[in-house]
Each structure stands twice: as structure tokens, then as C-alpha cells.
Amino acid sequence: MENQKKSVLSCIQPTGAMHLGNYFGAVKNWVDLQKDYQCIYGIVDYHAMTMPYDIKKLRTRVWDLITDLVATGVEPENLFIQSLIPEHAELCWIFNCFCSYGNLTRMTQFKDKSNDSQAKSKDNFISAGLLDYPVLQSADILIYKADFVPVGKDQDQHLELTRNIAQRFNTTVGKEYFVLPKSLHSDTPKIKSTADPSRKMSKSAGEKHFINVFAEEARIRKQVRSAVTDTGDTKAGTMSEGVENIFQLIQACENRPTEYAELMKDYENGELKYSDLKDVLAEALVELTNGFKLKRAELNENKRELKYKIKQSSEAIRKVAQETVKEVKDLVGLMNVKF
Ligand code: AMP
Ligand code: TRP
What we know:
- This protein is mainly alpha-helical.
- It has 2 domains: 7-188 and 303-332, Rossmann fold; 203-298, Tyrosyl-Transfer RNA Synthetase (Orthogonal Bundle), CATH 1.10.240.
- The chain is built from 13 helices and 5 strands.
- The chain has helices at 20-33, 45-48, 55-71, 87-96, 101-105, 108-120, 128-142, 156-173, 217-225, 241-253, 257-268, 274-301, 303-332, and strands spanning 7-12, 38-43, 79-81, 148-150, 182-184.
- The chain has a 3-stranded parallel β-sheet with strand order 1-2-3.
- β4 (148-150), α8 (156-173) and β5 (182-184) form a beta-alpha-beta unit.
- The protein is globular, with a radius of gyration of 22 Å.
- It starts with 6 loop residues before the first strand and ends in a 7-residue tail after the last helix.
- 32% of the residues are buried.
- It binds adenosine monophosphate (AMP) and tryptophan.
């Protein structure tokens, strides 16, 4: 029954084009979870402000990401835009008072991103929002009382902080009000850059280090053709990182199981031809992404309809957030409108 399903919450920052690492590492998992869980997924534009960003591009990026997510299989009614639900920011403030300052300064992501932020801004600027980022993330999660949070392993520290805040809150108000959420990791290992398989596929490394899910067919084929397979420094008897990455990508596409098994047999017998391996990957990716591209073109034909749906879903999801914030304000001694 619908109301007995466990709940899942996850969010993604609107930071530009979706690549195969994002898709196989996060989005595909979101799509699959919709079958068995009550899912809520957010586009976190408040979070996107914590680093230097382009004001003119932010809104377009939000809508582009929503279109991409829906094209790859996320249900529009499960999606919300964070800044349409200001209760996230309100709960974040309350949680600030249940979170120790020292804990925030110890977050790995803060340490990494503050260096990056300093480098990107002209005046060595690091915002207080960047320090507070994980508290807003805790509000995103706890406001919907989520049981599970699908995220990459790099987010485990933030999940731990979320549980700390929930626990401190529960102890302070003397009630087991918040459930303690757990992270959920997908089986797909990190997807590597095909141009340099020693590093993960990522936008920040530059054009050739990621394959865009919505790239033209010809570009996908070209990027696969030029994938690095073996640089010659692999230990005898072990698979090179490049070849392993291609095998993983074929497997992740889930549409070439027979070819995958045959290629693996060839590898084990020492008869693998890299050109065959790449051909199968190119076909698998083209088939998978052509479906997404068709769906995205359809959605782009009727942008207004999609925007309307997302505004509706954000409003419906906001009701849950409002209820939580009302209860929280009661519990911590703040004023509610009705008194
Ligand atoms: P980012 O674009 O780095 O903010 O990542 C958004 C989501 O995609 C996060 O959940 C990441 O864990 C996931 N992700 C990004 N790059 C990769 C990759 N190369 N392999 C697997 N997952 C990834
Ligand atoms: N910090 C997450 C990331 O960088 C994004 C995020 C914000 C998030 N709020 C969240 C993820 C709540 C899960 C739940 O990927």
C-alpha cells in the first residue's frame, strides 16, 4: 500500500550538463527507486549559491536539469525546486542552533570547496553559506522525514551530521520526533573519464573528460573511439583501468548482456580486441541515450506544461514541509501564526 512504502529523498545541484557519471552514479538509481519507495527529489538552487555562480544562468540551469531528469525517467510529480519551498531555509536556521560550529569546520567538502571558492572569486571570498551548506542539506532531508538518502560515498559525512542534528533535536525537545535517515549507495562504481581513466568522469576536468548524456550520436561514438584502453603500465594479469571502465559502462547500460559476457570471455582467453569492446559500448550508449533525447525533445516542445507540472508538484511537496516546520516551531518554543 502506498502509505506503507519507505521514503527516499535526494537532491542535486543545478550545475550544468548531465554526464554519464551523474547518470549511472546517481540519476539511474533515482529512477529505479521510484518503483519501490515514496520518492522526493529536489533541485537545490539555494545550495548552488554557496559558491561563486552566474546569476543569469541559474534559473535556466534549474529548468534544463529538470528537463534532463524527466527525460531520463524521473517522474515530474516527485520533483521539487528548493527555492519554491522556503521552509527549507527556515528549518536550516533552527538546525543551525542544534549544530556545533566546530563540526561544520571539520567537513571535508567545506575544506575542499573553500579552497576552490577562494581560487574562483576575485577577492578570496568564502561565504558563510558554504560553511552552513550541510545544515541546509540536513533540513532538506529531515523536513520530509526521509528513511533513505541515495547519495555518493562522499556525502556520508553530511549524512552523519544530519543524524547528529536529528539526535540532538530529539534529545533537547524530549521526543523521538525525527527519524534518523540512512544513506543508500548504488552498486555502480565511480565512472572514470574515458580520456584519462585514472580520474573520475567530471565536468570540472574539461570537455574530453566527460560524455554528455544528451550529446549528438556522432560525438558519443567519437569519444568512445578515442577512449584510452591500455597505457602499457598495467601489471600482467590485471585489467587496465581504461578497459575496466569500458566493461563497467557496457554493464551499466544493461542492454548488451550477451555481448558483455562474450567480450569478458575473450578477455579471459587473451583474445580481446579493443575495437570490438569500443564498438559494443558505442552501440549500447547510442541506443540508451537516443531514447532520452527523443523524450527531451518532446518535453522541450511543451516547456510550459512541464513548468506547470513542477510548480504543482513543488506546491504539493511544500505542504509536507510546512507541516514539519509548524510542528518543529511548536516543539522549540517559537511562535506559530495561530496562537
Ligand atoms: P556532481 O555533478 O559532481 O555534483 O555530482 C552529482 C551526482 O553524480 C552525485 O551524486 C555524484 O556522486 C554523482 N557522480 C558525479 N560524477 C560521478 C562519476 N564519475 N561516477 C559516479 N557518480 C558520479
Ligand atoms: N550535497 C549534495 C551533493 O553535492 C546535494 C544535496 C543537497 C543533497 N541537499 C541534499 C543530497 C539532500 C541528498 C539529500 O551531491
